[in-house]
Predict the structure of Probable regulatory protein embR.
Amino acid sequence: MFIIISQGVKYIATLIIYLFIFSIIRMIYLDIKSMSKMTMMKDGAYLKVVNRLDTLNFKMQEYYTLKGTITIGRSSRNDIVIKDNFVSKKHLQITDQNGTYFIEDLNSANGTYLNGELIHDIIELRNGDRIGIGFIQFLFVE
């Protein structure tokens, strides 16, 4: 009887060790995968979501590249879709004009915030600016 119990404990301990090693390999893989995305984005400007993605009740990417003119809003017709109830169907627009990026609120209901201040005009974005849309915070990286 003792031999059967000791064999069972040995198999369970081995299984736990394998699961632990598997989780470490998975974390390394995800880290390398996110690093490869970062090297691809070094060519141009991008938006990084500051919020923890696992706390949101909708899906979002961690990074969004900026090329040309992009729109952000709740509608699926936008380039970046945010399914937040505090985001308008067509909330804001970011325009690239020869490497200079400008942000414009598209008469959204709850407004667009740049570094904590409500914007009313077209404003030039600078590296490190924080863009607030509903509950989402983006970091502009050039």
